Amino acid sequence: MQIAYDNLFHVKISHSYYPKNGPHCLAADLCIFPSSSCLEKMKDLGLLFKPTPHGFTVIYEADKTPEGKFSPRRPITDPMKFTFYLVQKNPCLLNFSDLPLPSPKSQVIYRMHNRQDSVRHNQLLLTAHGDSQFLTAEDQIQQKPGRFTLSFETNKASVYMELKNELGDHVKGERIFPQKNRVNLPVMLQAHPPGTYTLFLDGEKNSTFYVDDEIKGRNIFGVVEIFHSSGVIEPYRFMDANNLATTKDYTININQRRVFWKYYVVKKHQKTIDSKDLAITSPTTDLGFTRLPDITLSNGLTAAPFVSDSSYQMSATPRKGITLTKTNGNGDGAFEIENLANATPMNLKPDKDNDSYYSEIFIYI
After folding, report:
1. CA neighbours within 13 Å on the CB side: how many for 167?
2. Residue pLDDT, tens place only, 1-35
3. What is the mean pLDDT of residues 235-252?
4. Measured at the alpha carbon of residue 128, what is the angle toward residues 124 and 133, in degrees to the nearest 5?
């Protein structure tokens, strides 16, 4: 047989914030690498990790049969999991992504894996929402250290606590007896493999969380887990029943956030201008602005706010031709300021009452 190399699987991460056929800034947004246990496993199997402009590829050393088919030189037979970390490098990544903004003390990460049934638009999605092709809040999971304290209140005299791993196997169980209607139970999972665990109380699902001390203290955006097990449905399996590799292309899509654009025209030098003589226009009919009553900023200056009539998806491609116009009227003469700055992820303000977001842009005149 002839020795060759081939791709075992690809993971492609696509973000609609960037131009579809243009350069992707994934390298500036995320750093991707295997976990230490995954790296050791890959070395044992003769697998290589290769970053790509849109994600990563795992390559295997193969024996090529006379029929032109490939099989790994070191067979991948036992059930196993390959884990890859996504470390957030761009602090604005979540600002321009259609995902929940984290709270200051949030310990939530995104878990993406191939134990899914989410084939959409001919894509093998690693995300959970069956009605969406994008990463959503359904892919979030609470992150916990290998040792933590389980705390809750109950009126029961005793509660049976059971932990199961991501395959549904029993990990540990214990009957606990609350003190003054409260439970404070140390849970120690350091000796168990990193991954997802589910807590059951008296047989009912209570919570699911991800345990991995290797990611402790890192700015982890998420984990990608590629399983080789019977729990993976056929379209997602990278090995067939004859131990021949069937290269898979897995996909993670992230959608851009929709925001309202809010301009503040600050009267710093031309203080006598009447805001009624100001207008902000766009060369396209889909982007319009309405002037709101003047406000006084914290520095004492007066500003005329203009807010977009609808929310728009943020984009790395700027909209050109947005213009601030002053007609003849009170104050100084007419003028135009063309190509105003666009909405930016840097100045994102949530509007919790309306479940929306504003991007604030300041223009000084």
Report:
1. 14
2. 556 789 999 999 999 999 876 656 677 899 999 99
3. 91
4. 55
Bridge partner list, 37: none
Say if CB 222 and CB 212 are below 8 A apart: no
Tallying the residues shown for the chain, one arrives at: 365
pLDDT > 90? residue 256? yes
Backbone angles phi and psi of 267, in degrees to 5: -85, 80
CATH code: domain 147-211 is 2.60.40.3080
- How far apart (Å, rounded) are the C-alpha atoms in residues 89 and 107? 17
- DSSP assignment letter at 204: E
Nearest CA-CA partner of 305 in 324, 323, 325, 291? 291
Dihedral, 102, 106, 111, 116 alpha carbons, nearest 10: -80
pTM here?
0.90
What does the pLDDT look like over 53-83, one tens digit per residue? 889 999 999 887 777 777 788 889 889 999 9
Closest CA to 145 of 197, 101, 110: 197
What 3-state class would DSSP assign to 138? Answer: helix
Contact of 181 with 159, CB cutoff 8 Å: no
What are the extents of the domains in the chain?
Answer: 2-142+213-254, 147-211, 258-364
CB-based contacts of 325, cutoff 8 Å, min separation 6:
278, 279, 280, 281, 334, 335, 336
